[in-house]
Amino acid sequence: MQIQYANANIQNKTRIIFAFANNFETMNINARFEEIINSLYKGNKRAFAQSVGISATVVENVVGTRKGKPSYDVLEKVCANANISAEWLLTGKGEMQRAEDRQLAIPAIKEQFSLRTDRTIGMQSVPLYELDATAGLVALFDGTTRQVPVSHLQIPDLPPCDGALYVRGDSMYPLLKSGDIVLYKEIPYTASSILWGEMYLLSFTLDGENYITIKYIQRADDDRFVRLVSHNPHHSPKEIPADSIRALALVKASVRFNTMG
Question: What is the crossing angle of helices 56-63 and 29-40, to 10°?
Answer without folding.
Answer: 120
